[in-house]
Amino acid sequence: MNTPTNSSLLKGSLSVMILRLLEDRERMYGYEITQKVKELTAGEMAITEGALYPALHKLEAEGLLTTETQLVDGRARKYYSLTKTGQTEAAGRIAELAAFLENLNLVLNLKPSL
Amino acid sequence: MNTPTNSSLLKGSLSVMILRLLEDRERMYGYEITQKVKELTAGEMAITEGALYPALHKLEAEGLLTTETQLVDGRARKYYSLTKTGQTEAAGRIAELAAFLENLNLVLNLKPSL
DNA sequence: TTTTTATACCTAAGACTTGTAGGTATGTAA
DNA sequence: TTACATACCTACAAGTCTTAGGTATAAAAA
User: Which CATH number does A13-107 carry?
Assistant: First the structure.
């Protein structure tokens, strides 16, 4: 397994990534999220657990996520899903981030390098 | 003057925006940067001065920027330019951010909404 | 003439997110 | 039996940003 090149996230993006992943899936558990992100980015992006779990707990406290714990192969998994409020909020926050990224690109004016 | 819709930045992007703007320009002063960002984003993105000036000072302390103060119309302007080190570092940090943004898009998998 | 707006710089305090660095525990492979 | 993958967690420090002030000059509006 190769070491991720991007060790740090842009602060504020993690919770939106979580919400976006859960928009497309019924439910996910924490460890699964870390693996899915690695998979989607070909190992280039790593979600640290020290950031992930507090983020999940905060989204749950905000009422955007609900949990159900399940025992699989003798190990406890905590599945997270979007609440109804979470679905609405997710759409809003994702749109907000998308708008920001468009503006960021306007400022950066990056030339296509490939 | 319309109120910016994006009140918050993705933490970490500001310094790269500054470096990118200075890549294309000999020199800029703080206030000019805030106006240029507004202009480029049609007023949607606002750089707060409370974030901008500390960021400029840090980049200068890191040796990436140099300053020259000039009096224009009775008001002092502090012009910032990239140092030689700054030019190298700018290229690196911009590439790093671009790579991160690509990975972020892979995770977000945003559908074209317009 | 006085007040407001635009220009132009600055800092302090607090909120918030993240990385580092630990910890616990089970199942499986070496 | 040792290491690795799975699976959860927290405390602390570092860093960036927003909010909310401050100072000062020039020009425009009231």
Answer: 1.10.10.10
CA of B76 to C1' of C17 (A): 36
Query: What number does CATH give the domain B13-108?
Result: 1.10.10.10
Nearest alpha carbon to residue B4 among B45, B42, B36 = B45
Cβ neighbors of B71 (< 8 A, separation 6 or more) are: B77
Taking the Cβ of residue B8 and every Cβ of chain A, the question of whether any pair is shorter than 8 Å is answered with: yes
The string of pLDDT tens digits covering residues B76-108 is 999 999 999 999 999 999 999 999 999 999 999
* Domain locations in chain A as residue ranges: 13-107
Say yes or no: A44 contacts chain B, CB-CB below 8 A: yes
Annotate A7-54 with three-state secondary structure: CCCCECHHHHHHHHHHHCCCCEEHHHHHHHHHHHCCCCECCCHHHHHH
Count CB neighbours of A72 within 10 A.
9
